[in-house]
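Database export, one record per block. Field names are fixed; values are copied verbatim from the stored entry.
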Amino acid sequence: MKEKEDNKDRRLSRGLMVLYLVLTVGVGLAITLAMVNIQFVHGDEWRALGERREAGLRSDPARRGNIYSSDGKILATTVTECDLYLDLHNKPELDERGNAKYDKQGRPMQTGPIVDSSFNLYLDTLCIMLADAMPGHDVSYYRERIAVERCKERPRRCFLVQRGVPYSVWLQITRLPGWSHGVVRQVDGQSVVHQVRAHIYGNLAGNTIGFRNRKESGSYTGLEGYYDSILRGQDGLLNCRRLTKGIWLPDEPHAPREVAQRTDTATIDTIVLQRRVDGRSIVSTIDTRYQDIAESSLRKALNMYGGTAGCAMLMEMSTGYMLACVNLAIDTAAHDYLEVRDRNVAVSDVYEPGSTFKTVILTAMLNDPNVRIDTTMMLPARYKNFGGVNGEIKDDHGDWDSLTLKGVMEQSSNVGMSDLGWRLYNNRRDTLRALVERMFPYGKLNPDIKAPEYKTYVNNLHASNRDFLNFCYGYSTRVSALQLLTFYNGLGAGGRMVKPLFCRAVIESDGSRSEIKPVVLNEHICNRRAAALMHDMLEGVVENGTGNNIKNTTYGIAGKTGTAVHSYSNKRRYNASFAGFFPSESPRYTCLVMLENIPVYGRQAAVVFKTISDCVVAVDKGLSDGAVKSVWPRLEEDSAMAQQRPTLAKGRADDIRDLYKRFKLPFACDDSVGTWVSYVAASDSAEGRYVAYEPVGGRVPNCYGMTAKDAIALLHENGYKVKVNGYGKVRSQNPKANNAAKRGVTVVLELR
């Protein structure tokens, strides 16, 4: 029995041995055949596939050019940003026996890419760095997010902390002791480091510079979009080989960065060699000084009156260069007025302009060769019915029943403008429309920024009397703010209309500049007589009419106010605007301000206009060469007003002499003046003049009328201490002037 079992076991062993040998030989033979097949039969095919996977053409991205302001500052550039991901995965730390380890507080110790000791020691440092670099979140926000994720039972190995971290900050985080392995470098095979377009001054002039489109990948608005082919440059291609996953190196790092590029995707034979060409930079016409003051004053007005949007534009008259272009709209998420993406108020919004369009209508009438308008004619200015119920026009402001043509413009009378239009063009309505369309830039201006321009138009003036009359004072037509600014700029230039330009020059690769020359749209939008008459009327609007809230300037403004109903469904919401040019005697700049959908009727836009014009006059030194209308020559000529010449009661002789020199006024003084002078007013026997002032020793100097700076210097020279209250000029002092007082006594000055 036992022998039979042994024989059976031996047969089974021999069978298994044979089976093993057969399988081994079979598998070996199959492997050998497969190797032969791969190596020799299909070898070329597999080698080509491997080559394609491990080597190939990789893009060498060109650097996008910068956008500069006209005053030499960088408005937009390419910067490196990073998305901060952390690997917070951890697991219990074990000792040599495999038991969990505990810290001094009895908590289980964890191990992972970031050990507990480094995590706890440098977490606050990381959060402070992020809070400083990323406005909008404080330190506690980042600490709580990271700590909560870390305490989870299974923390994420790729936890997004913050997008758009500056590269320098991200690099500092990777260098924190113990954090290097915890900062994720790649996500889904893509590097967390990437190049982005940054506006250096934040939201300033955002729509003019341009935003990246959300719908179209790689496209932009504004200057970025219009000059994209110049700024983008030309990407190169490199023949690279894969080093590791996601990392490629040039095949020949010392060779020229020049590779084959296909020009025809259908063939491989047609190729050219091409290097990477970085984008060129451009110089915009925007001046950051004017842009900043225009934006801040417009935002202040919108916050005060509660509009939904607004724009403020400043144009250089002779060239059409846009020195400032502000487009603010309410951002409900930020609870502020910002340059909102895809909302270029100046270019894209069309609206009924109201009274600022009266200038266009009247200029067209004055330009009509078949009509001779008597500017002294009297026109109704309170109420009139023109041809029926639909022709009733009222003016609710003013105490006059009739006005001259100039008075109609100054007081912005709708009745007066309607009466003039009815008299001259009621039976020739198409003629008036043609005159306006021939002169006003109704067509697309195609400015050199990428922004939608919507259709502007004039209503059918034959539909009703009301439509025709409305057209005469700024309704029944829809225009953009940029079109209206372009017209006023042409009118101020005597009829020469130029295209608005937002780019001044292109900086070539060798550093030279290719200037962009002004483009003339129409050499003569009106005759000289019409331009001169309108110039005089617009000056009158500011001096005597609806714009008199901004008339107190030394340089002079010529312009027109405008208030129009924003929506006929709610006639208590208005668009307030002011358009004009300055200095009024020799205009150099044109400006337009529009506040959209505000709940008050008034002249709010004119105040913003004056803030901008004051800034321009203060900054532009060239205006002191005669372009600014000076009040001093008139004072010199009028002896009755000579006493109004500005004076300083007391001060340093050299400072007062320099001040008079700057105003080009004579400095009348005695020959014996020293360091300090005092002004003696004019009398019947003598003119006003400055005489020497010498304080009496042992008595307090008389500081009345002095500036704080001069008063302190005078008192210190005579050995007294000083305490100053208030600001302005000295209006009282204690001890009083000329009182006996020892040196070292404190003199209290009250300034107002």
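Remark 1: The longest strand covers residues 74-86.
Remark 2: The first helix runs from residue 2 to 41.
End of record.
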